[in-house]
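Entry for the shared binder. Reason: the reviewer on the internal report wants the predicted structure included alongside the sequence.
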Amino acid sequence: MATSNWTFYKDSFAGTNFTSKVLSATISQGREKYLDPYSGGTLRFTIDNTGEYASNFTFNGKIIMQRNGSITTGFQDWWTIQEIDYNDYPGNTGLPTATITCVDGLSRSGRYQATNKSLTQAATYSQAAQFNNSPLPSDLVIFPAFGGTGNSTASAQSYTGTVLNQLNLLNATERGILRTGILSTTPNQCVFPYSRNQITSQIVTSVAFGRNTSSTVIAYDQFDRIQNGLSFINTATIEPEGLTAQTEANAASVSTYGTAFYSSATVDYDITQADGNAGWIANTFSNPASLRFRISFTDTMQNSTAYLAFQNALPGGIGFTLSYRVPGAVSDTTTTVALEGWQLSITPTQTRWTLSFSPLTYYQFFTLDSSTLGILDTSRLGW
């Protein structure tokens, strides 16, 4: 049986350990679906506030939560305090509590406004890093070195708006993934972008997801297959900053199902790149029967080896193998998926994880015989 044994510290790795005060906690990070914008992650934990213990926490103070108190293994991230909700017991009797809301680096980037920021033409995530130190503070860093600087090019511009808004525009241009995490023992919040050509190299082979637990399998107790629904698209318009909008359609899908429209603002640097972006969306999401997945499991039902391997895979691990059995089938279906986001519900007795997946094919940028995304026996293998 695996257990998380979370440890909570304030200010630094060697800071105050207040784990004994924590009654429960929840975390939400990433996104649910491939086309969703990022809003950033949230940690909320409730503490025993006897003696007004919450007065030790201040706005923008740092929190780190670690598995087994280890700085080298397991899922961990820096969190910045934003709000304290005091739950005082009426009559000043009983147990007073306080719920403290913290945000990750991605969410925090939405609190910083750029005004007429000069951004040079560059690979998407290289341009994102131009926000470092201005307007971002020194303890919040966009770090593309792990996941690549980007395969698409972002246009030069004078930008006014939040850093998070531009990160979402850059990601809509790149069609990659944004993660947060730690870089070293310093309490810096880091945003790690992963460019689309890096996604399929971030495949985790040490652990998979399935129906039965083992030393290499995390077993879920809740499983959802979700058909495309609102993510069914066969006609896409990309609206690049300062350029003419580009529209592409999957003619066969339109003929069969009618038009299902999508539009997206981007910072594609020219119309050729924008047209490729539109073509990719129109072709990738053109089947209404395509699936995405959501699973849920607890730490206590897992093999300890598999659970540690899963935690050690975060935040950089993106691709996983997922097996499931359709009702009435005699064997499992196995597919490769991309981890889009997660939620945790933590109590002293167990941690429940809920994971959202997209098909990994959404990040494999080659569509056979597409006029913009690749034609067999030619050199046009992607946009």
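Summary line for the report: The longest helix spans residues 271-284.
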